[in-house]
């Protein structure tokens, strides 16, 4: 099988418990990984990936030192890296279309590694927890199965998912880690948190909220973040949510109401407010072109074509 553990293929598994029982070193690696200190990543070196997005680059990138993502509860964060070229991709997968998403991630890394004959593809998976609906568990199995279907040999190195990323607090299950970063220069993957989630944070959230598919948000050859063009229809009915209390929003708009980070409700409300303020998505993409952002000398992302 093309997904390898310690250079050996493995049969399709029926549960994550089976995977960890058969590969105790993965358990140990997961415990080691989740005990690492949480790094608060400097926005000036960061490329932040939101839900249902991915980004890939190489160590030669002068604009990005860390790719990162957080706010994952049942979602899984996927890092795929080629050890020869150093090309690396990070994705925030929510299970919306895992089987079509995984080949995009493999292609993103292999296309940046074409001149490199040495090295191998290494996979790091972090996310999910023991949620009541087993959403995390299903996503874990689907991601592993999708990588097994790829023709390339892919080596599973870190697997801190579902029960290995679970902690019980006050009788309730929660993820241990909600976010990770990957150092583009060294390939190190580490637990991380982020104060900055841009550029175009609300636009990108609106794209996902309205059903946008997994999107590649970065052109590493030009150092440009590219968003859209996105398409949504005016929907005034969503204003209903702005008047609802936190518990109602959590109950109906989250896959894991009891495990969301504290800013979840405000994030949902600001996304809905953005959609109400921009009912016509076309107006955000003049000429049907994506919004482009480049990194300034100060380290901020700035809309390209603007002074």
Automatic annotation (TrEMBL):
GO terms for cellular component: nucleus. Transmembrane segments: none annotated. GO terms for molecular function: protein-N-terminal asparagine amidohydrolase activity. GO terms for biological process: ubiquitin-dependent protein catabolic process. Pfam families: N_Asn_amidohyd. Residues 294-307 have a biased composition (Basic and acidic residues). InterPro entries: NTAN1 (IPR026750). Residues 283-307 are annotated as: Disordered. This is N-terminal asparagine amidase. The lineage of its organism: Eukaryota, Metazoa, Chordata, Craniata, Vertebrata.
């Amino acid at each position: 099988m093309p997904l390898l553990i310690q250079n050996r293929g493995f049969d399709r598994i029926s549960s994550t418990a089976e995977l960890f029982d058969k590969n105790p070193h993965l358990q140990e690696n997961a415990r080691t990984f989740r005990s690492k200190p949480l790094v608060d990543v400097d926005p000036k070196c960061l490329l932040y990936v939101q839900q249902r997005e991915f980004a890939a680059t190489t160590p030669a990138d002068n604009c990005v030192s860390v790719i990162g993502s957080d706010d994952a509860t049942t979602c899984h964060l996927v890092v795929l890296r080629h050890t020869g070229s150093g090309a690396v991709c990070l994705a925030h997968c929510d299970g919306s279309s895992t089987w079509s998403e995984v080949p995009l991630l493999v292609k993103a890394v292999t296309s940046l590694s074409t001149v490199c004959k040495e090295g191998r593809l290494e996979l790091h998976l972090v996310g999910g927890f023991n949620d009541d609906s087993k959403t995390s568990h299903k996503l874990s199995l689907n991601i592993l199965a999708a990588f097994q279907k790829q023709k390339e040999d892919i080596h599973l190195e870190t697997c801190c998912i579902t029960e290995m990323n679970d902690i019980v607090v006050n009788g309730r299950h929660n993820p241990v880690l909600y976010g990770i970063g990957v150092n583009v220069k060294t390939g190190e993957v580490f637990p991380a948190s982020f104060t900055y989630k841009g550029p175009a944070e609300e636009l990108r959230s609106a794209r996902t909220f309205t059903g946008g598919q997994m999107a590649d948000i970065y052109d590493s050859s030009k150092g440009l973040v590219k968003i859209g063009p996105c398409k949504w229809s005016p929907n005034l009915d969503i204003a209903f949510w702005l008047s609802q209390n936190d518990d109602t929003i959590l109950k109906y708009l989250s896959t894991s109401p009891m495990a969301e980070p504290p800013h979840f409700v405000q994030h949902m409300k600001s996304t809905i407010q953005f959609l109400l303020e921009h009912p016509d998505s076309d107006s955000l993409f003049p000429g049907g072109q994506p919004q482009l952002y480049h990194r300034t000398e100060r380290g901020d992302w700035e809309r390209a074509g603007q002074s």
